[in-house]
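Good morning,

Attaching, inline, the backbone tokens for the sequence recovery test we're adding to the shared suite. The designed sequence is right after.
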């Protein structure tokens, strides 16, 4: 394609040249606009869109064939995966040899296993798109791969003394194009495809046809698959899909002070002859512009460096896909992996730049994306190890201090890759059951998880040193109590409220379960009397503050942060008191089994 040399690295569009809705509502105007644009600008337009809009825009271009073939293989692959093969037929029909080969490399293999069904399905789609495209594939594909595919679909015999045994073909449909080679169809669903494909090949190039038939007869299956796999590996490794042992090295940890300003020269991305001249932009589809990374990227004026970053993100994501053993053909896995990669880079960039966007832009201009990823990864792993240490030292006690929902957060913090829970509802009653778990993507996420771990550590210290709680005393209390009947309802708030009750009644700090009569006396003392019978009661702040002061006199070495956490805990206890007991008529019989907040015998 002669115009390919005119393509320079593609900077982002400052402004889309026409309203995007015109693609559907006014295609004629879009055609006219595209006809006045250079091929480079049309490529930028296509890369600025997603999914079906990309396909529709390509169809409207008078240079659609050239336009498609200028797009990176990665962008083509994700475009097809996003819109579905049926809608992508116009694109399949005009793919270059490299683009089609990349598509097959991604879809035909699962690790080192060749998937014949996948190969047949994709060849059927290519046939539906264009007979000529199918024939071109058969004429240009690596020979071992063609033989491997055909051996999975057909058996071939010919009339001579060495190959006329015809074993294992009973009941199989067969045909012959030359009266010499008998072709038996092992997969009935592929009959139409194979007859059409081999007929086209026979008419176009009988030399290749005969070579393939002989190879299907004589090549041993296992060595042929192994040879095809080696060729496939050599191609995909150039895209960052490296062997597992090499891919896991991406998870090496890097200290923020070790960041080096040594990003590669941009020359390779400027040369129009380079395969890297047009970068895939699908990594940017998962980039949140509001993140620190997104803001720094938007500030960059060096378009060649943006081009390079897109390539680095592509290869880095591919390595992480391999290291995490994710299914390459699964689009959701790609998006999840890319979000994780971008998240760790965002954390590394925030740490390296200290939150300064100007410094962040400088780092993006001069630092490898993998280095930023590894700095972010190190920051996340530090929290994982802190969580593991906490569980090792105090896990059994924490089970009785944290709610089940909080225990889920603790478990997520020590996952292979620590996760953070995002609430999907604001309703308190449902908050613990409507949580979306995701990878950490910002320094704020790191701080939230760190605060949670610090809070958990505080609960352990507070329980042991202020409430005199141990595993043994917890077990003793649970053997004595009638309520709560469900052990999962026991947590630090229940223990603290019980301690408040005993302090109110007996001026002592301990969590020994109460008798119902004692609990009633506590409620009568802790609540101010309301004017109206059904009015929600208010907690006596003088008693609460006296309790707080007594707690501060216990052996816990109170830090300012500890005092803040204690105040928050007491606020939660007050809320629990008011919601569970605030509207009870204390002059009547209380159904304690329907309440929560106190240990009762």
């Amino acid at each position: 394609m002669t115009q390919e040399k005119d393509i320079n690295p593609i900077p982002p569009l400052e402004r889309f040249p026409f309203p995007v809705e015109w693609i559907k509502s006014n295609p004629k105007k879009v055609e006219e606009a595209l006809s006045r644009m250079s091929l480079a600008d049309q490529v930028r337009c296509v890369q600025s869109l997603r999914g079906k809009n990309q396909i529709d825009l390509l169809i409207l271009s008078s240079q659609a064939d050239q336009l498609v073939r200028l797009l990176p293989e990665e962008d083509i692959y994700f475009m097809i995966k996003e819109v579905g093969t049926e809608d992508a037929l116009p694109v399949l029909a005009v793919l270059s040899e490299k683009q089609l080969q990349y598509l097959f490399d991604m879809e035909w293999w699962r690790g080192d296993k060749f998937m014949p069904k996948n190969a047949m399905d994709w060849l059927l789609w290519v046939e539906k798109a264009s007979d000529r495209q199918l024939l071109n594939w058969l004429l240009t594909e690596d020979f071992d791969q063609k033989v491997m595919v055909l051996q999975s679909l057909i058996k071939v015999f010919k009339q001579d003394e060495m190959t006329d045994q015809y074993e294992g073909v009973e009941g199989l449909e067969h045909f012959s194009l030359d009266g010499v080679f008998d072709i038996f169809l092992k997969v009935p669903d592929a009959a139409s495809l194979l007859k059409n494909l081999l007929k086209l090949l026979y008419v176009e190039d009988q030399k290749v046809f005969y070579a393939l038939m002989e190879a299907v007869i004589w090549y041993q299956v296992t060595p042929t698959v192994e040879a095809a796999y080696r060729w496939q590996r050599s191609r995909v490794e150039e895209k960052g899909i490296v062997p597992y042992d090499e891919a896991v090295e991406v998870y090496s940890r890097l200290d923020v002070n070790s960041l080096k300003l040594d990003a590669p020269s941009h020359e390779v991305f400027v040369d129009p002859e380079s395969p890297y001249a047009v970068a895939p932009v699908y990594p940017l589809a998962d980039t949140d512009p509001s993140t620190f990374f997104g803001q720094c990227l938007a500030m960059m004026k060096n378009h060649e460096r943006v081009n390079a970053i897109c390539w680095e993100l592509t290869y880095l994501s591919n390595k992480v896909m391999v290291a995490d053993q994710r299914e390459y053909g699964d689009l959701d896995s790609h998006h999840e992996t890319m979000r994780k990669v971008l998240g760790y880079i965002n954390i590394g960039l925030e740490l390296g730049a200290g939150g300064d966007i100007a410094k962040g832009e400088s780092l993006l201009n001069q630092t490898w994306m993998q280095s930023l990823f590894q700095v972010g990864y190190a920051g996340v792993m530090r929290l994982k190890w802190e969580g593991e240490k906490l569980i090792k030292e105090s896990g059994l006690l924490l089970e009785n201090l944290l709610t089940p929902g909080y225990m889920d957060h603790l478990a997520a913090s020590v996952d292979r890759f620590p996760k953070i829970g995002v609430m999907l509802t604001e309703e308190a009653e449902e908050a613990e059951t409507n949580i979306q778990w995701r990878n950490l993507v910002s320094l704020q996420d790191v701080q939230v998880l760190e605060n949670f771990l610090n809070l958990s550590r505080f609960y352990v210290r507070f329980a042991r040193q202020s409430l005199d709680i141990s595993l043994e005393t917890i077990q003793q209390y649970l053997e004595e109590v009638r309520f709560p009947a469900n052990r999962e309802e026991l947590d630090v708030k229940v223990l603290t409220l019980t301690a408040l009750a005993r302090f109110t009644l007996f001026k002592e700090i301990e969590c020994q379960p109460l008798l119902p009569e004692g609990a009633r006396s506590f409620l009568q003392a802790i609540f101010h009397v309301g004017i109206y019978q059904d009015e929600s009661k208010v907690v006596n702040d003088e008693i609460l503050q006296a309790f707080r002061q007594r707690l501060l006199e216990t052996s816990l070495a109170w830090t300012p942060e500890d005092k803040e956490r204690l105040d928050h805990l007491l606020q939660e206890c007050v809320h629990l008191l008011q919601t569970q007991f605030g509207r009870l008529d204390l002059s009547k019989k209380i159904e304690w089994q329907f309440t929560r907040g106190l240990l009762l015998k």
